[in-house]
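Weekly puzzle thread! Below is a chain. First person to post its structure in token form gets bragging rights.
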Amino acid sequence: MKRVNIIGAGISGLSAAICLAKNGTACCLISSMPSERAQSVLAEGGINAALDTMGENDTIKEHFDDTMKGGCFLESASAVKILTDNAPEVVMELFRLGAPLMSEKGRLILRNFGGQKKKRTAFAKSSTGKMIMTALIDEARKYEASGLIKRYPHHEFAGINITDGSLDSIVVRDSRSNEFLSLAGNTIICTGGMNGFFEGMTTGTTQNTGNAAAILFDAGVEFADLEFIQYHPTTVGITGKRMLISEAARGEGGRLFIMRNNEKCYFMEEKYPELKNLMPRDVVSREMFFVKEMPECPGEVYLDMTELSSDIWKNKLSDLRKEIIAYLHKDPAAEPIAVSPGIHFFMGGIRVSDRHETNIRGLFAAGECACKYHGANRLGGNSLLGAAFGGKTAAEAAMKDMPDWSEERISFEQSVSSPSVRSRLKDILLGGLGIARDSTRLEKALDESGKLYREDITAIDRMRVRLGTAALRSALERKESRGSHYRTDYPDKNDKYRKLTVVKSAGDDIILRFIPADSEEKL
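Winning reply:
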């Protein structure tokens, strides 16, 4: 029997499953939560494609150029070209599947988004991820009914077996029965970013523990660019996480300000008159960080949306307004909202080829868990695109050279993470991997992570500490500032480091090397 295993049922996982099923290949769709609760549901602002429906003469070449520039030219140019070339078809296919993207007489309406001069972002008010997921879930159900997609709900990734650089099997746990299954066959990882390493500080789902990434890293899967962590400038703290105030609010005219000498200072508009509040997210977050350090600017940074028209609130941002009122008990149409940067996206992750292969034969990765399209800083609207296209691309690769699939109940001793160790590791990582970094902070964090690693901690916590240490090592070794990685002791770009930071676990050691962004060495 031939099947492909997919770990994760968000946009990348569903896209992979649908692609496989359309081609007559069966798959197992494995997830700890139902798709309706996947992190993809939380995406708000939109999905990018150079559809040029707004009369601005937008082109695919400009989408490519903006993506490369936004990522500080650290992305794989070949991969970004494939992504942007296919973006219009990806978005139109989602629209055809029933995603209720804003349209008028069949023409998609596009909005402005950060780092882009043209209106290029298709959207469904401020619930784009949820609407795309609904369409994909409905499409997947057709293939579930025929048996081509088999759901493994409430199952979590627990282990992986690799021999001589090839995948033998994965281990998953049924969280209800506590039974463990060993599944052979090609496998696509679609588990999202490393939110669980920064509990309470990210906009992502609280269900993402980061354990899958730690297990894979421990098993010898290569990761890349772990130092590139995107801080979204407009978030608000709520219970257990950060609430995102979508970039769409600034795309529709929201303005950032801080009180300077008792007067409103629209600092982004002063410093960046062309893109103003729609500069790339790393730039906006840094400017917010630095402006708050100025003695003449005490207090918070605010997002002022009070000048937005009633039409915009009704037709484009109604979901966002309801969310802010529900969680903050404030009406953004009537008063500015205090905001601060929060961790929003991980550009780094599992190193993959343009075909989404990893360094392990038979293992693939797509979505936020994979490092491919976003370089040093992701453009808003490119994450949903990268997830949908990446899932399809990984599926096409996984259909080739398929080994036999099998399922077997096994005995397996699963390690359990300690809340206190997770909390300590989070504090260590935040100390070194903040918006502004330097060697002193990073070396201190590395010293602390080394001490934690040598303590009597569980096996999974040891894996987590090793992956966190790899991220700190990556940040220390990249002696430049590029995109979301800002070093106060190396404030300028250095073309010597226009390369991927590749890390691999080797026992208790971590092997780190720099390779060209377009290199497919050993993949």
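Puzzle host: Confirmed. Bonus trivia for everyone else. The domain at 3-193+347-410 is CATH 3.50.50.60 (FAD/NAD(P)-binding domain).
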